[in-house]
Specification:
The structure is a homodimer. Chain A is α/β, with parallel strands linked by helices. Chain A is about 45% helix and about 15% strand. The interface of A and B includes residues 22, 31 and 277 of A.
Chain lengths: ~300, ~300
C-alpha cells in the first residue's frame, strides 16, 4: 500500500536529482478546449519522462550491497532505471523489445545499461527476465506494480498540488496518461492527501482502455493486444494488482482517445507549448482538448 | 543605464506573471559537445520567448493613464508586448512585416492586439510607426534599445545566476542568442553583479554578426541585409545604442553559427531536451555544440 509518507520519503531522496517540471498553459489551447488547460511537462524530466522518478525511488530504496537491477521496458522505464542505477553506481540490465523506438534503446545504452533485446512475437519476456535475474543475482524493478515505483511517480502529484495552490486552483480534473497505472495511482494518492478537489482520471488509447473498463466493471480487464496504437509507451496487457485498487478508491471514470486525437495533441503541444510530447504522453492533453468532462475552474 | 536594481525591480513586478524557466541538460548533448551544456529554456516562457519579460517590464513601468502602446516586431516582441498590454488592460498596436511567421501573427492577435501589417520591401517602418504613434497617442516600446526592456530581459540573468549556484556551477560561458542585444545586455548586467565568473558571449547567424564585429572593432557595425537567414527572430540592422556599450564592457568576443548548425541544434534540442526551439533561439546551443570555446566545468 503506497502512502503519502512513502511518496514524501521518495521526494526527499530524489531532491537534487529529479527536476520539478513546469505546469504550462497557453491562451490558444484554453480557447480550443473551452476551458483552462495546464500541462505538467514531464517530457522535460531527466531521461525524458516521469519514469526517472520511479526509477530513482526504487533504486534508492534497495538494500546496500545489491549487485544490480533488472528492468523490462519498451523505453521510458528502461531509461529511468538505467539512469538511476548509474547514478547509484550499480549495474543495470534492461530487457527491451527489439521493436522499441531506436532513440530509447540508444539512450538506455548511453546511461550505461546493458540492453538485452528480445522478440515480442516469439520470446517469453517473463521467462527471460526470471532467468537473467536468477543467473546474475539482479533485483527486478517492475514498471508499475511496485510500491516504491508508485511512490516515486506520486511525487508528480505532490508538485501538482503545490503548483496548483500557488496558481489559486483548488478544484480540477487531473487527467493522467495511463498504461499499467503507476503514475495515476501515485498521483491519486498524493492528491487525495494534499488537494482533495483535484481528482485523477486515467486516459488511455481507444482499444487499449483496460483501466477504464476495469474501473467501470469493478474487475480487472485485459486488452486483446499490446500493439496497434502509436502510443507505444502506455500499451500494457492490463492494470496492475497494486494500482487498480488505489484507482478504484480514488479515481473518476477512465477516459480514452484515438491515435488521431493523440497526434493532434502532440502537434498543438509542439506549436503552443513548445514541448515535444510522445504519443503516449499526449493522450491526457488530447482528452482535455477533445473530450467533454468538466472545467478546471 | 540598466542597473542591477532596475533588473531586480522588473523581477519583482513580473512575479506571478512570468515563468521561471528550467535549465535543461542531457548526457548525450554533453557527449556531443565534449563539455557540459545547459539550456535555459525560454521557449517555455509565457508567449513563447523571453520577450514576455521585456514586454512586461516596459508596460508595467508606463505612467498611469497611458492610453496604449505601439511595438514593431517580426513576432516575439510583438507577442510579449501584446500579452503584457492585455494583462494591464491597455490597447496594443503591433506593426509586423507581412512576411512574419503566420503563427506569430495569429498569436499576437489572439492576445488581443491590433496587428498592422507592412511590406518590408516597399514601406518605411519607422515612418509608419511615428505616424501611428502620433495619430493615436501610443507609447512606443522598442524591441531592445530601451532601459526597461533590457532590465526585463536581464531577469533571465538573475535566474541563471541562482540556478547555476544551486547546481554548484561557479564559472561558465553564457552563450546568448543575439539580435539587437537586449537579452545579452540584460543578462550580462545581472551576471556581472550576481555571478562574476559567468561571462556572456553573443551568438549570431553568420553574415548577420553585426554585434560580434562591433565588439571586435570597437565601433557599431551594421549588417548588409536583414533577410537571408532562417533565424528570423534575430536579424537586426545593427546593435542598439544602449546595448552595445554594455556588451563592450561586460561580454567576451562574439560568436556566429551557420543556418545549418542552427538547424542541427534545433533537431538535437527536439530529440534530447524535448523542447521546440526556433532557429533564432537555437544559435546559442549551436555555438555550444559546434564552436570551440572553453568548458563550463
Amino acid at each position: 500500500m503506497t502512502t503519502l509518507a512513502a511518496i514524501e520519503a521518495a521526494a526527499a531522496r530524489m531532491r537534487g536529482h529529479v527536476r520539478e517540471t513546469p505546469l504550462l498553459g497557453a491562451p490558444l489551447l484554453d480557447r480550443l478546449a473551452g476551458r483552462r488547460v495546464l500541462v505538467k511537462a514531464e517530457c522535460l524530466q531527466v531521461t525524458g519522462s516521469f519514469k526517472a522518478r520511479g526509477g530513482w525511488a526504487a533504486v534508492s530504496s534497495l538494500p546496500t550491497g545489491t549487485g544490480g537491477v533488472l528492468a523490462m521496458s519498451s523505453g521510458n522505464h528502461a531509461q529511468g532505471v538505467a539512469w538511476a542505477a548509474a547514478a547509484h553506481g550499480i549495474v543495470a540490465v534492461i530487457l527491451m523489445p527489439s521493436d522499441a523506438p531506436g532513440v530509447k534503446i540508444a539512450n538506455t545504452r548511453a546511461y550505461g545499461a546493458e540492453v538485452v533485446l528480445y522478440d515480442r512475437a516469439t520470446e517469453d519476456r517473463d521467462a527471460l527476465a526470471a532467468r537473467l535475474s536468477a543467473d546474475r543475482g539482479l533485483a527486478l524493478i517492475p514498471p508499475f506494480d511496485h510500491a516504491e515505483v508508485i511512490a516515486g511517480q506520486g511525487t508528480v502529484g505532490l508538485e501538482i498540488a503545490s503548483q496548483a495552490a500557488a496558481m489559486g486552483i483548488d478544484a480540477a480534473e487531473v487527467l493522467v496518461c495511463c498504461g499499467g497505472g503507476g503514475l495515476s495511482a501515485g498521483v491519486a494518492t498524493a492528491l487525495a492527501a494534499k488537494a482533495t478537489d483535484l481528482r485523477v482520471r486515467t486516459v488511455e488509447p481507444v482499444g487499449f482502455d483496460d483501466m477504464a473498463r476495469s474501473l467501470a466493471s469493478g474487475v480487472a480487464q485485459s486488452n486483446p493486444a499490446t500493439t496497434g496504437s502509436i502510443c507505444d509507451a502506455i500499451l500494457t496487457p492490463g492494470p496492475g494488482r497494486l494500482t487498480l485498487p488505489i484507482l478504484q478508491r480514488l479515481a473518476g471514470p477512465g477516459l480514452s482517445v484515438t491515435d488521431d486525437q493523440a497526434r493532434q495533441a502532440m502537434a498543438l503541444a509542439f506549436t503552443h507549448l513548445r514541448i515535444v510530447a510522445e504519443p503516449g504522453g499526449a493522450v491526457a492533453l488530447a482528452a482535455a482538448l477533445f473530450t467533454r468532462t468538466c472545467p478546471i475552474q
